[in-house]
Amino acid sequence: MFKELVLISAGAALLYYVFSKPKGRGRPKVTCRSSRDPNVKYEISPERQTCTCPDWKERRSSYALNDPRRFCKHLNICFENMNFQLPPALAPFEDMLQHFGLEQKGTPIGADSEIVVVEDKTRGGAETGMLAVRKNPDDDWVNVYFSSLRYGYNQDEDRWSYGNEPPYADELIQNLQIFKKRR
Questions:
Q1: What is the spatial distance between Cα 92 and Cα 85, in angstroms, rounded to a whole number?
Q2: Residue 85 and residue 47: Cα distance in Å, rounded?
Q3: What is the full DSSP assignment across 88-156?
Q4: pLDDT tens per residue across span 166-182
Q5: Distance (Å, rounded) from C-alpha 75 to C-alpha 170?
Q6: Which of 54, 81, 130, 163 is most buried, judging by how many CB atoms fall within 10 Å of its CB?
Q7: pTM, full prediction
C-alpha cells in the first residue's frame, strides 16, 4: 500500500491529508483531519466525489456525480493539493473549484442554486462553468461565481453590485431559472 502525507496550512492550523492507494484494483482514498478537532478524521473518495464530513453528508450528497455543488472544502482541497485529475465533465468548473480549494472552502450552495456551462468566446470557445446561488429564498441578491470571481446581482433593483457584471450577464438573467423565481 502506497501512502503519502500532505500538510496544508489552514491559517494557524495544519490540515493533514493522508493519501493511500491499495495494491491491485483498490480505489485511492484520502483521510484528513478536521480543522476544528484534530481527533476527528474524514474519509474522502476523489473518484466517487464523496466525503464523510457533516457538510457533505447533510448538504451535498444529494447532488449528482460531477456537479460542482457536491464539493465540500475537503474535496476541493483534495483535488487542488493532491494532484487528482478532475473528471472531464467538471473541466468547465476547474478554475472555480481550484479557487475554492485554495481558499479552503466548499463550493457555495444555498436555498436555491443553479449551474450553467457556457461557450466562452473570450477563451476560444472553450466551455466555462458558472454557478448562481441565492443563500436565502427571501433574499433579493443572487451571487454568480465565474472562474475565481464572484458577482452580486440584486433582482429587485435590477443591477449588478458596483456595476461589475460577469461575462454573459444578459444571457444569465434571461435564461437561468434562479433569476426568474423572484420576478
A1: 13
A2: 9
A3: GGGGGGHHHHHHHHHTT-PPP--SEEEEEEEEEGGGTTEEEEEEEEESSTT-SEEEEEETTEEEEEETT
A4: 988 888 888 777 777 65
A5: 32
A6: 130
A7: 0.80
Query: DSSP 3-state assignment of 62?
Result: coil
For residues 75 and 97, the answer to whether their CB atoms sit within 8 Å is no
Of the candidates 43, 33, 27, which has an alpha carbon nearest to the alpha carbon of residue 6?
33
Q: Domain ranges for the chain, please list them.
A: 2-88, 112-180
CA atoms 79, 84, 90, 93: torsion sign:
positive
C-alpha distances out from residue 129 to 38, 99, 100, Å: 35, 13, 14
Integer CA distances (angstroms), 178 to 19, 116, 147, in order: 38, 11, 19
Q: Which three cell numbers stand for residue 32?
A: 484528513
Q: Could you write out the DSSP letters of every residue in 100-114?
A: HHHTT-PPP--SEEE
Cα-based distances in Å from 149 to 57, 86, 110, 154: 27, 20, 17, 17
Q: What is the spatial distance between Cα 150 and Cα 27, in angstroms, rounded to a whole number? A: 35
Which pLDDT tens digit goes with each residue over 130-176? 888 988 888 889 999 988 899 999 988 999 999 999 988 888 888 77
Contact 21, 2 (CB under 8 A): yes
The Cα–Cα gap between 116 and 166 comes to 13
Measured CA distances, 39 to 34, 35, 84, 94, 99 (Å): 7, 10, 26, 31, 28
